[in-house]
């Protein structure tokens, strides 16, 4: 079998997984970044908790493709963090869900984040690829990088 990054695994080699068929690519034990979408969906649980609530909050505004994107939130899976301790994450959405009719890149939605004192500390950005949610970014202001997403109540959503 050939994984998405081109490494082959034979049945007697480490990393071979019989449940990964040749149709969707083999998943190397050390290489989830280059795995195929079906393989990632099998290994990653849907985003729950804070990630799902934040995405839901950011998609409360009326923008093109909002209905399709809202439907994707429940099935979106976090595939990796952008760095150690980073609250920004990459997402994958099953292909059986309808794609949103939007261009690749940033959605025209910004979630401005305040701290408990009411000061702006950053903003949340949603990335889309192929009409599907692909990343949630927490860009911060100042020197102290956040280590987790904010509670949705601290986020004010605007369309830009």
Short recap of the structure:
The chain is α+β, with helices and mostly antiparallel strands and 160 residues long. The chain has helices at residues 37-43, 50-58, 66-73; strands at residues 77-81, 89-92, 105-114, 120-129, 132-140, 155-159. It has three helices and six strands, in the order αααββββββ.
Q: Which overall shape is indicated by the principal axes computed on the Cα atoms?
A: globular
Structural classification: alpha+beta
Strand content: 25-35%
Poorly predicted runs are 1-34
Task: Report on the biggest sheet.
Answer: 6 strands, antiparallel
Task: Give, in spatial order, the strands making up the sheet with the most strands.
Answer: 1-2-5-4-3-6
Q: What's the alpha carbon Rg, rounded to whole Å?
A: 17 Å
Helicity, as a percent range: 10-25%
- State the distance separating the first and last CA atoms: 45 Å
Mean pLDDT: 79
Annotation field: number of helices: 3
β-strand number: 6
* N-to-C SSE string, H for helix and E for strand: HHHEEEEEE
Entry keywords:
about 160 residues, alpha+beta, 6 strands
Explain how this protein is built.
By secondary structure, the protein is of the alpha+beta class. It is 15% helix and 27% strand. The protein is built from 3 helices and 6 strands. It has helices at 37-43, 50-58, 66-73, and strands at residues 77-81, 89-92, 105-114, 120-129, 132-140, 155-159. A 6-stranded antiparallel sheet has the order 1-2-5-4-3-6. A hairpin with a 2-residue loop joins β4 (120-129) and β5. The longest helix has 9 residues, at 50-58. The chain is globular, with a radius of gyration of 17 Å.
